[in-house]
Amino acid sequence: GAVVSQHPSWVICKSGTSVKIECRSLDFQATTMFWYRQFPKQSLMLMATSNEGSKATYEQGVEKDKFLINHASLTLSTLTVTSAHPEDSSFYICSAIRRVNEQFFGPGTRLTVL
Amino acid sequence: EDQVTQSPEALRLQEGESSSLNCSYTVSGLRGLFWYRQDPGKGPEFLFTLYSAGEEKEKERLKATLTKKESFLHITAPKPEDSATYLCAVPNSGNTPLVFGKGTRLSVIA
Q1: Do B54 and B25 touch, CB atoms closer than 8 A?
Q2: Which of A14, A85, B84, B92 measures 20 to 30 Å from A101, CA to CA?
Q3: C-alpha span between B23 and B4 (Å, rounded)
Q4: pLDDT tens digit string along B14-35?
Q5: DSSP string spanning A75-106?
Q6: From B90, which residue of chain A is nearest by alpha-carbon distance?
Q7: How confident is the model over B57-110, as pLDDT tens digits?
Q8: What is the dihedral angle through the alpha carbons of A48, A46, A64, A101, rounded to the nearest 10 degrees?
Q9: Cβ–Cβ below 8 Å for B97 and A42
């Protein structure tokens, strides 16, 4: 299957700092990528849709000024958690669409905010 | 209203004890039903996509089936390495993100 990578795989930061998470499609180009968040023992919840060359589309209840998304190329989308707080601690997972109905997920990034 | 409902929430099996996981969905005009496996601390790993009622797909000890209202993931003679959370998902439409069920946490005991 297609490969999607995320970096870093885990990060610990102090409250108030910003953290950037990268999502890369390694062997295909993806005009659309998605960012999900998953809390312990919960399913994946969509945060936003990232489209190459245009603004991201955020789901209801997700603060666009807090979760900045940039999809600058066909293989890279970044999620920046600004002014992170402990309640932002979660498992962040990206996915990329290779073609219709082929969606591949990254390995996830564990964010812990102290 | 939940579009995807999975049951049971958790399942504990003895090694070799076959069983089935259920995923019921309420979306109209189904554009694919997806099964993923997720290990703790990892992203979902794609297993199957089913598109039409009656379709079946197999991979090792797993077989997925689809009806007009639900999908089953059958696990035959499971092994401890099959322990994981199995997620079912459907797209809202076309090229859109997937809507996931809450998953079934499977534990296979040797």
Answers
A1: no
A2: B84
A3: 7
A4: 999 999 999 999 877 778 899 9
A5: TEEEEEE-S--GGG-EEEEEEEEEETTEEEE-
A6: A101
A7: 999 999 999 998 999 999 999 999 999 999 999 886 655 678 899 999 999 999
A8: 0
A9: no
Query: CATH number, domain at B25?
Result: 2.60.40.10
pLDDT of residue B28: 73
**B51 vs chain A: nearest CA distance in angstroms?**
10
Where chain A has pLDDT below 50, the residues are none
Token reading at B84: 């994981």
* B102–A107 CB contact, under 8 Å: no
- Count how many domains chain B has: 1
Share of chain B above pLDDT 90, in %: 73
Are B97 and A46 within 8 A, CB to CB? yes
Position B26 scores a pLDDT of: 86
* Host domain of residue B35: 3-109
The pLDDT of residue A102: 80
Task: Please provide the DSSP assignment of B41-72 as one string.
Answer: TS--EEEEEE-STT-EEEETTEEEEE-SSEEE
